[in-house]
């Protein structure tokens, strides 16, 4: 039986400290303040309700299944969701158990299995709703590690994988996030490089050149493990990874839009008037 390496992180000094900034809000306020279109409730195997926020784009265009960062909030989520929705893409973002609209309490050991439950629930919703756009898995920071694990398991069904602010070694990630060295376990945890080496679909990496948790040189070790010639490493000018999440603008969104479209054979339109003026 496979060992769940995330069990090593299920102590308050790691789990509670790491996710303490996470603020996915709730749906209990004024309906007019909602930034998402609907909430998808997904039953987990242990009878708890996992919820996902849906920013609804065109049914025939790609659907991005998003695993949030440990520092995510409704503002950063809105930047992604509303931005992709304007471009026709649908963003479906999981609320980790114990946060936002999902029930229960967060356990690190359940992150990977909850992501699979999330995936299956979204796939079922798409089928029932007649939504036949392709699927993309995307994650940010610790969500990038969860997204990678999910993408390896569902590879045949995906257009591509998007990893923003990814990291190579789990130990370095935890230490630089402020976890005390005495609490950081020895041995493999996320095993990102091993998983990346077995993933053959295209990957889009997005990273800040001033990321204080994982430098460009360090994350390149993870990029080098990608098996696809269509993999790209995009540097996004910003400060920390938290600041990158708050600087998602038109250039960021359009680059992702074009990258995903290329994976499904849709090439960007050429502005012929602009071309003639050159």
Brief rundown of the structure:
By secondary structure, the chain is α/β, with parallel strands linked by helices.
Topology of this structure?
Elements: H1 12-19, E1 38-43, E2 49-55, E3 63-67, H2 74-86, E4 90-95, H3 111-129, E5 135-140, H4 142-153, E6 158-164, H5 170-176, H6 192-196, E7 203-207, H7 216-223, E8 232-235, H8 241-245, H9 250-263, H10 272-277
Parallel strand pairs: 3-4, 3-5, 5-6, 6-7, 7-8
Antiparallel strand pairs: 1-2, 2-4
Helix pairs in contact: 3-4
Can you characterise this structure?
The protein has one domain (5-265): Alpha/Beta hydrolase fold, catalytic domain (Rossmann fold). It has 10 helices and 8 strands. The chain has helices spanning 12-19, 74-86, 111-129, 142-153, 170-176, 192-196, 216-223, 241-245, 250-263, 272-277, and strands at residues 38-43, 49-55, 63-67, 90-95, 135-140, 158-164, 203-207, 232-235. β5 (135-140), α4 and β6 form a beta-alpha-beta unit. The relative contact order is 0.14.
């Amino acid at each position: 039986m496979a060992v769940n390496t995330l069990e090593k992180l299920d102590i308050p000094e790691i789990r509670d400290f790491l996710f303490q900034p996470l603020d996915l809000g709730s749906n209990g306020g004024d309906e007019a303040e909602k930034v998402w279109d609907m909430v998808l409730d997904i039953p987990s195997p242990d009878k708890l309700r996992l919820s996902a926020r849906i920013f609804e784009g065109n049914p025939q265009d790609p659907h991005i299944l998003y695993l949030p960062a440990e520092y995510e909030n409704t503002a950063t989520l809105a930047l992604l969701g509303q931005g992709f929705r304007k471009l026709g893409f649908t963003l479906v973002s999981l609320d980790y158990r114990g946060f936002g609209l999902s029930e229960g309490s967060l356990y690190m050991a359940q992150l990977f299995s909850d992501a699979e439950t999330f995936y299956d629930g979204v796939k079922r919703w798409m089928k029932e709703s007649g939504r036949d756009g392709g699927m993309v898995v995307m994650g940010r920071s610790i969500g990038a590690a969860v997204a990678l694990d999910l993408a390896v398991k569902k590879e045949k069904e995906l257009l591509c994988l998007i990893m923003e602010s990814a990291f190579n070694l789990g130990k370095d990630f935890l230490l630089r996030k402020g976890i005390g060295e005495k609490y950081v376990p020895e041995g493999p945890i996320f095993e990102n490089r091993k998983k990346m080496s077995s993933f053959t679909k295209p990957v889009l990496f997005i990273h800040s050149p001033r990321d204080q948790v994982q430098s460009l040189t360090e994350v390149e070790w993870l990029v080098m493990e990608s098996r696809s010639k269509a993999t790209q490493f995009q540097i996004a000018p910003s400060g920390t990874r938290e600041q990158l999440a708050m600087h998602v603008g038109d250039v960021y969104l359009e680059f992702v839009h074009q990258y995903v479209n290329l994976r499904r054979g849709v090439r960007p339109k050429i502005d012929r008037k602009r071309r003639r003026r050159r």
